[in-house]
Amino acid sequence: MAACPPSSIAIIGLSGRFPDAPNLQAFWRNLEQGVESLVAFSDEELLESGVPADLLANPNYVKKGTLLEKADLFDAGFFGYNPREAEIIDPQQRIFLECAWEALEDAGYAGEPGSHAIGVYAGSTTSSYAYNNLLKNAAVLAAAGGYQAMIA
Question: What is the CA radius of gyration of the chain?
Answer without folding.
Answer: 20
